[in-house]
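User: Structure tokens for both sequences below?

Assistant:
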Amino acid sequence: MNTERPVILKLGGSAITDKTGELAAKTEVINRLAEEIKRADLDNLIIVHGGGSFGHPTAAKYGIKDGYKEDPAQKIGFAETHHVMTVLNGLVMDALIWHEIPAVSVAPSSCMVTENGKVKYFDETVFKSMAKLVFTPVMYGDAVLDEKLGFTILSGDQLVAYLAIKYNAKKIVIGTDTDGLFDSDPKTNPNAKPYKHLTLKELKEIQPKLGKATGTDVTGGMASKIAELIPAIEQGTHVTITGATKGLSIYRALTDQSILGTEIEKA
């Protein structure tokens, strides 16, 4: 049985899909990431991926994050949002299994219920059984049932923080479409300054200045994503943010090597 503290890898939707399109997966990036995950060869890995151009446009169209408004069309929207996320998850799973990683998909909507958007209930029976047999669970941002709102969106960032706190994660690795955090958007400003290392105090100071999302993102931009991670950092979990679209960045982050990106720790 694997008793190590887990490493949680978040594959951002901006890295594995084209967020300016719709249902636009970056299959070459997904395949290379699977290769790097295989090479890192971690027995204590939990993978979470975002929705990108799959989940976000549908969720936005039907207002899923804001809850059920007595509109029957929203129920179709909930079902469609969950379904397109399983499609993206299927592409991720194809790559992982092709690279002989014992990955098993776990749909948050099948084992988690939220209350006002925060996880209230998690049936971890399957997770515990996977740990005993050293499988790699793969979760994703999903449309989930909510005790107050009827339903909502549980983002990949919320999942990462929740799992990190619950299982006292050794570290979190976030793969995005940029090389870490910058003082402005590096896609539009070539002089954007990278943050190579941040303490929790420094992170809280810069968090409101972090950029908005490109394309449709019902869970907010980088500032919102960092806000979700702060409780895990407060617990003492080390966070590495690096560019998943560049070769070997995720492999290096998973194996504790130096990376082009941002390292965040409590102090």
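Moving on to the next sequence.
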Amino acid sequence: MPKVAVFNMEGKQVGELELNDAIFGVEVNQDLMHKVVVSQLANRRQGTVATKNRAAVRGGGRKPWRQKGTGRARQGSIRSPQWVGGGVVFGPTPRDFSYRLPKKARRAALKSALSAKVEAGNMVVLDQLTVDGPKTKAMANMFKALDVQKPLVVTAEWDTNVELSTRNIPGALVAKTQGLNVYDILNSQKVVITKDAVAKLEEVLV
């Protein structure tokens, strides 16, 4: 079982914690993590981009000139794609980019991402995380004491004070165990997770 140090909010080590091999010590599957991240980013796309085709542009109802006898190329409409102001050929249309991967694949990718952070020494475990009201300075001081930049803070339950205290810190993000995802883990420099969150992950993912 991998062992990690446990810190308090002042950045001092207060103990050690053994992590479950089934979650934090699995073989890292980069291909699977890539597939899950691509799926997540596709699901975030709005899919509202659109262009006007020749049926949607204004004008062009009359044939510009007769078919034969002018010496010019035949034209049916001044809104054909080759005309300035004409419709767009094969332009994007509103569509849904989202798709789902199997639940087992998503869970395996999440375990791989967590294991990769532990293996690289980029996971910091806190004994507890409490903030008395929205205080950005308190969280900033904690990150400085722990020597972390662009962290992902993972809590067992949603804490409004922690979220409000973190959201003005550039690069910092807060998530609870239920909404933890591969993209946020890999996109962060370090994962700062509470002991309660570790225990909850071990309950849910084992």
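User: Anything stand out in the second?

Assistant: Residues 5 and 16 are 4 Å apart (CA to CA).
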